[in-house]
Amino acid sequence: MADTIFTRIIKGEIPSHKVYEDAHVFAFLDIAPLSPGHTLVVPKEPAATLDALSDEASAAIGRVLPRICRAVMKETGATAYNILQNNGAEAHQAVFHVHFHVIPKHGASGLGIGWKPQRLDAAAGRDLADRLAAAIGS
Length: 138
Known about the structure:
There is one protein chain. This protein is α+β, with helices and mostly antiparallel strands and about 140 residues long. The chain has three helices and five strands, in the order H-E-E-E-H-E-E-H. The protein is globular and about 50 Å long. Strands 1-2-3-5-4 form a five-stranded antiparallel β-sheet, with helices on one face. The protein has a single domain, classed as HIT-like (HIT family, subunit A, 2-Layer Sandwich), CATH 3.30.428.10.
C-alpha cells in the first residue's frame, strides 16, 4: 500500500496534535474537525479498509478506542459522540488508510446523519444470516 497522509503522520513526516500512541495505534486531532475534540484513531498497520486489517491491529484499536472516547468526553464536556468509520470511496472514505473518527456532539456541532431504513424480509434475512455465519467461520 502506498503511503497516505496518515502513514506520513504516524512516521512524523507531517506534524499532528497527537493524543495517543502505542505500538499499534496512533490517535490525533482532526485538522478539519466537525466539533471540538474530533479525534482520528488510526492503526499503524497500513490497510485501506477495515476488512483488510489484521486481527491483531483490530484488537489493538478495540482496546484503546473506549479510553480515547472517555478522554474526549471528559475534556470537551460533550455528553454524546459518534464513532464513524468509512470503507471505500462509495462509503465516503477520503483517506485510504483505516481510521475511526471520534466526533463529540456539542449542541448542533458534530456529525449529522441521514438514515433511510428499509425492511428486512424474514426469509431473505435468514438466508443472508446463514451465509454470513458460514463465511465468518471460514
